Amino acid sequence: MFVARSIAADHKDLIHDVSYDFHGRRMATCSSDQSVKVWDKSESGEWLCTASWKTHSGSVWRVTWAHPEFGQVLASCSFDRTAAVWEEIVGESNDKQRGLSHWIKRTTLVDSRTSVTDVKFAPKHMGLMLTTCSADGVVRIYEAPDVMNLSQWSLQHEISCKLSCSCISWNPSSSRAHPSMFAVGSDDSNVASGGKVQIYEYNENTRKYGKVETLMTVTDAVHDIAFAPNLGRSFHVLAIATKDVRIFKLAPMRKESSSTGPSKFEVQIVAQFDNHNSQVWRVSWNITSTLLASSGDDGCVRLWKANYMDNWKCTGILRGDGSPLSASSGQPISTTVGSSLLSQNALNGISAGRYFFPPLDAPRAGSRFGHLLPPSSLIEHCDAELVSQPQQQQSLPHRHSSRALLSLAEAEEQ
Known about the structure:
Blueprint lengths: L1 E7 L6 E6 L5 E6 L3 E7 L5 E8 L5 E6 L7 E6 L4 E8 L10 E9 L6 E6 L7 E6 L3 E6 L10 E7 L4 E6 L10 E6 L10 E7 L4 E7 L9 E4 L8 E6 L3 E8 L12 E9 L6 E6 L5 E6 L3 E7 L5 E8 L25 E6 L8 E2 L7 E2 L35 E7 L3
Antiparallel strand pairs: 1-29, 2-3, 3-4, 4-5, 6-7, 7-8, 8-9, 10-11, 11-12, 12-13, 14-15, 15-16, 16-17, 18-19, 19-20, 20-21, 22-23, 23-24, 24-25, 26-29, 27-28
Subcellular location: Chromosome, Centromere, Kinetochore; Lysosome membrane; Nucleus, Nuclear pore complex
Main location: nucleus
Keywords: Cell cycle, Cell division, Centromere, Chromosome partition, Kinetochore, Lysosome, Mitosis, mRNA transport, Nuclear pore complex, Nucleus, Protein transport, Repeat, Translocation, Transport, WD repeat
């Protein structure tokens, strides 16, 4: 069965993002109270706040971890038009605080003229690189030439996307057959402005990133995008959170050996779901790319899985309190997901009562929602019996609360 627990986050305003580290034993939260908190999982399974500090002079939209190969490093971005890099330092033996850790700011990136809406570290095989996107429609890629000196970052690329940017995702493939690639989504609500997802690829000849594809079928505001981990596939899989959940397949077309131009892709939409009956705000893959989690305004996290025919189906529904949902009656049920249960933790942001994801009032047009999903490294491969599709649900009203909570749903095998 699913056991739901809550953690008093003690943020003084709404929580916008939660990020797990590579191992899933640490997490970071950020909030409109301008602070970031770091949580560590104890041996007993309790999440303990081990650090809390003010990071920006505006709402903090996103927080993300670097690969542990580069140390304990965080990056955050904010409405104050900046992104910041933080490193955890452990006190020396002769220090008054020996054995205790504290976070220090290594650098502040101030190139954006508008709100920085997302920040992501590049895959580790590319080195220590950080990407930001902003409401001014510019993606910036920074590199730390010396990983031992995180106070020095150089701006390597500045890419204008022509549309307000809301989210970015790197293709994690480390194959030499796949050049470095990232996708950027736009929350521009004007349908007439065209496709809201653009794909950029690195060209070795020009040493620049160029746009190789625009998903013209995605014309509504995009809230989140996520490339699936690539485990030897010749093609790429991209999940998109917009007014529904969409999964795209990007298959590179064979190029002539003498061709030096940008790659061309055969774009195919392999799945599209409107089961949330509302806006979808987050999508997240498990580490084997066999399971996709999505969250929306219906107050549920839904799990999607493809069968051997590559047909995607809903394999599980979790309500805001962490309990499964019966598709027929809407009542909580006690169910396993295939041969194994949802592993470890599914962390969900809640604001008040039974409501799942609160609206986050952004100072700019449109609202940003802190819909938080299970970390990809903690969702096991599941061979699930299909759960019948849920009935049409009415949108629940949202509530605000000054005391933000984190709802932690843990799956425990009976």
